[in-house]
Design the sequence.
């Protein structure tokens, strides 16, 4: 799988280990050792994915994440020792696609990277007959031709994961989805019961598409079961 990855990691031993392993897997890896260097490098060339440590000098990982999300939907995987629920929520809330806590295995890291790149490739090269459709649910309009969502005629800015979750519901309006099903479908990985990732993405998605996020109408919670699309 040929792809170019920006690795943002200030710890030399970890950076070298990740770079060497991913390059052996066939990836091109560019290593930035602080946030300011990462911003400069990202502006100089295109990347297919970013591996981001949060605790980096000069410009924090969170600040770097916010800057990138203002201009790009490139997949971003956080790799950090800051693995508390708050840090996960902050990282995913600012637009990260996944979170891997240190210490991690290189096999797991490589699998997460490949899964993220597969998802991007699938949505970018979906068959034209699928992409040409427009799905309307009440005030929401999902354009599968260019993968955009609008509400009342105004585009809603979603991260790639948020868009994939919403697409899953809007293309299956009668179906109930468990958290396990959502994770396995959207993340394309086995589900090990980490509900925080689903909860954070669902909360952020509701903040963007619901009139009253605390009383959602589009994505309903079925307590103890999962979620389904609301009926209007």
Sequence:
């Amino acid at each position: 799988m040929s792809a170019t990855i920006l690795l943002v990691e200030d710890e030399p031993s970890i950076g070298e280990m990740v770079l060497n392993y991913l390059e052996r897997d066939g990836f091109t890896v560019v290593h930035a050792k602080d946030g300011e260097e990462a911003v400069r490098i990202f502006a100089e060339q295109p990347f297919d994915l970013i591996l981001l440590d949060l605790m980096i000098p000069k410009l924090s990982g969170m600040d770097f994440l916010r800057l990138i999300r203002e201009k790009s939907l490139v997949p971003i995987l956080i790799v950090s020792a800051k693995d508390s629920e708050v840090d996960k929520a902050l990282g995913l809330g600012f637009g990260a696609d996944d979170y891997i806590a240190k210490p991690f295995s290189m096999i797991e890291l490589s699998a997460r990277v490949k899964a993220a790149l597969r998802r991007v490739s699938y949505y970018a090269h979906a068959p034209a007959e699928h992409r040409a459709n427009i799905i309307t649910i009440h005030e929401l309009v999902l354009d599968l031709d260019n993968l955009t969502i609008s509400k009342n005629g105004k585009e809603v800015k979603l991260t790639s994961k948020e868009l994939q979750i919403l697409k899953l519901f809007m293309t299956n309006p009668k179906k109930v989805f468990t958290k396990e099903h959502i994770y396995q479908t959207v993340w394309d990985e086995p589900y090990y019961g980490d509900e925080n990732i689903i909860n954070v993405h669902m909360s952020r998605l509701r903040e963007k598409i619901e009139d009253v996020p605390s009383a959602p109408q589009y994505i309903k919670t079925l307590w103890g079961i999962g979620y389904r699309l609301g009926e209007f």
In short: The domain at 128-229 is CATH 1.10.10.10 (Arc Repressor Mutant, subunit A).
